[in-house]
Amino acid sequence: MAAEAKAVQQAPQRVALLAGASGLTGAALLRALLANDDYTRILAVTRRPLLQDHPRLANRVLALEQAQAGLAGQRCNDAFCCIGAPQARRGSPAQLKAVDVELTLGFARAALALGATRFIVVSAAGADRRATRPFLKAKGEMEAALRELRFANVDILQPGVVPGLREQMSAAALVELTLRPLLNPLLRGALASHRAIAPGDLAAAMLGAARSQRSGIHQYAGTILQELARRGRDAS
């Protein structure tokens, strides 16, 4: 018993840093992090206070642009980034660059300053800085810039569509929300990367990527995301 108690006392204190906890995927990820014991503390950065309380949750209310200064003195092991521009696929190039590129990179630099050795981020299937579509171009620029930072490990998740109820959705978007998941069985081979994935599944995949502990920079898309999601749902 004494040996077991000593082992518990010496267990590493792991801290997760999370941005985007008020969004669909970020909120699902926060629930997953709190439901499992992978991390002894979850440090969530939000612009507005989160409407939940948990002994392992530390909510820091500040703009992400101020994250590095506002989190000075904190430490973390893994950083999870779920931020993205509102109505991202229809956003203007300026909106996309400000959020999906500059804000994401600012958060990544803050995570590095806090000691993070792993960065897990949501990108998009087809991301390419040479793409003609502004959304895919912004995601591609973000991915390229992340590769230039000093993270030992980066996990880039590239989902197709992440369906969910959002503010100011058009009638066409609501119809797509219903029909898009029904197309998944038809998207095979190279098209599998464009499959819809639920926010909860994407969140589980992010946790699964963290648990895989793969070294270096890796991209995940298509059916691999569901494999990661299964890993993320396993009890820790």
What does this structure look like?
- The chain has one domain (12-231): NAD(P)-binding Rossmann-like Domain (Rossmann fold, 3-Layer(aba) Sandwich), CATH 3.40.50.720.
- With 236 residues, the chain is of the alpha/beta class.
- The model has no long low-confidence stretch (mean pLDDT 86).
- The chain is built from eight helices and seven strands, in the order αβαββαβαβαβααβα.
- It has helices spanning 2-9, 24-35, 67-70, 93-113, 134-148, 171-179, 199-212, 223-233; strands spanning 15-19, 41-46, 57-61, 78-81, 118-122, 153-158, 216-221.
- The protein is 40% helix and 16% strand.
Query: Order of strands across the widest beta sheet?
Result: 3-2-1-4-5-6-7
What do we call the CATH homologous superfamily?
A: NAD(P)-binding Rossmann-like Domain
**Which class best fits the helix and strand makeup?**
alpha/beta
Mean pLDDT: 86
CATH architecture: 3-Layer(aba) Sandwich
Give the biggest sheet.
7 strands, parallel
The run of helices and strands is HEHEEHEHEHEHHEH
How many β-strand stretches?
A: 7
How far is the N terminus from the C terminus? 22 Å
Poorly predicted regions: none
Q: For the record, what CATH class applies?
A: Alpha Beta
Number of domains: 1
Number of helices: 8
| CATH fold category name | Rossmann fold
Strand content: 15-25%
What is the CA-based Rg, rounded? 18 Å
- Helix % is 25-40%
Q: Name the shape in a single word.
A: globular
Question: What is the fold's blueprint, element by element?
Answer:
Elements: H1 2-9, E1 15-19, H2 24-35, E2 41-46, E3 57-61, H3 67-70, E4 78-81, H4 93-113, E5 118-122, H5 134-148, E6 153-158, H6 171-179, H7 199-212, E7 216-221, H8 223-233
Parallel strand pairs: 1-2, 1-4, 2-3, 4-5, 5-6, 6-7
Helix pairs in contact: 2-7, 4-5, 7-8
